[in-house]
Design goal:
348 residues; alpha/beta; four-stranded antiparallel beta sheet; binds iron/sulfur cluster; transport
Length: 348
């Protein structure tokens, strides 16, 4: 039955790790949704909590030392209270993961065909080996591996980086997942191959009718694949919106700083000055305050500012959008490195 309900709804998701130095809060009470058949990008610098957030959905973070709380509803079912066996059915079934480095995920002692056949037969134990091989060929064809039947008997080291990522995507598709969680799947690839993999994911999304949660540090990649964007910093959501809202009306100083780091923009060479705060002892107030060019006194007291809605789909966590402030102060034009200016950065 078709429904308008989001495929995934995350509310108050918090992931903590017990360490010798104290409790490390990697993800701190975040909310987001993934609509059916659409792509949501979780974006932020390394250490922003985006990978831990994505891994907390199916609880593949190690627990202990990790502890996940909050609500994760997948197709109406609460995931956080599921037993391990119920979770096992969803992981690698209706929700599949692919990771940055296919090198680590593939077993180099077995042929690619053997590994896909095993994945097919694990998911469907009644399928014969011959049928599973035929399915493996179909999957390799779907992900654009040329000469798929012959390549089944090749070992992972005989595939290029881009081809290995295609194989990993094929293995993720074995179960015809409703949600594909892709964690920096193109980061290790050169720009041309990166674009090919993004195009492939878009084609497969339509063919397999999947939603995608795409985790990346690269707003350039986001422009090519996202329907919706959630910008994370130090475990918190700073801004969320459609891809058009984020690129044409970036509103949070952190989002704008990330955009200024794109090639051709003012901070492309040096990046955002400073580093992320400690997740064990984060600063009071806005987590971004120590690096923010627009911080005022109120930014450094209390909690992270609540999200202020700018539209039905666009919200921002910054005091300059609260009553009594003028948001235009944080919306100076973004300066490109050739001296030209722009309000936002177009997504195409
Ligand atoms: S709340 Fe303050 S520190 Fe945080 S982004 Fe807004 S201006 Fe900067």
């Amino acid at each position: 039955m078709m429904t308008d309900e989001p495929l995934l709804t995350v509310e108050g998701l918090t992931t903590e790790f017990t360490t010798d130095k104290g409790t490390l809060v990697a993800v701190d009470g975040i909310d987001f949704e993934i609509p059916r058949g659409e792509t949501v990008c979780l974006v932020g610098e390394s250490g922003s909590g985006k990978t831990v957030a994505s891994e907390s959905i199916t609880r593949i973070v190690p627990t202990p030392p990790g502890e996940v709380s909050g609500s994760v509803k997948f197709d109406g079912q609460e995931v956080t209270t599921m037993s391990e066996s119920e979770l096992e059915e969803i992981r690698g079934g209706r929700i599949a993961h692919i990771f940055q480095n296919p090198q680590d995920a593939l077993n180099h002692c077995y042929t690619v065909g053997w590994q896909i056949v095993e994945a097919v037969q694990t998911h469907e134990p009644d399928v014969s080996k011959q049928e599973a091989r035929e399915r493996a060929v179909e999957l390799l064809n779907d992900v654009g591996v040329a000469n798929a039947a012959a390549r089944l008997d090749d070992y992972p080291h005989e595939f290029s980086g881009g081809q290995k990522q295609r194989v990993m995507i094929a293995m993720a598709l074995v179960t015809n997942p409703d949600l594909l969680i892709a964690d920096e799947p193109t980061t290790a690839l050169d720009v041309t191959v990166q674009a090919q993999i993004l195009n492939l994911l878009e084609d497969l999304q339509e063919e397999y009718n999947m939603s995608i949660l795409f985790v990346t540090h690269d707003l350039g990649v986001v422009a090519g694949i996202a329907d919706h964007v959630v910008v994370m910093y130090a475990g918190k959501v700073m801004e969320r919106g459609t891809v058009t809202e984020i690129f044409e009306d970036p509103s949070h100083p952190y989002t704008r700083a990330l955009l200024e780091c794109l090639p051709g923009q003012a901070r492309a060479a040096e990046g955002i000055p400073g580093t992320l705060p400690s997740p064990i002892n984060p600063p009071d107030g806005c987590r971004f305050a120590p690096r923010c060019d627009y911080a005022v006194e109120e930014c450094t007291a209390g909690e992270q500012p609540p999200e202020e809605p700018l539209s039905d789909t666009h919200a921002v966590s910054c005091v300059h959008y609260q009553q009594g402030y003028d948001p235009s102060t944080v919306k100076e034009e973004i300066v490109q490195d050739d001296g030209a200016t722009t309000g936002g950065v177009t997504s195409d």
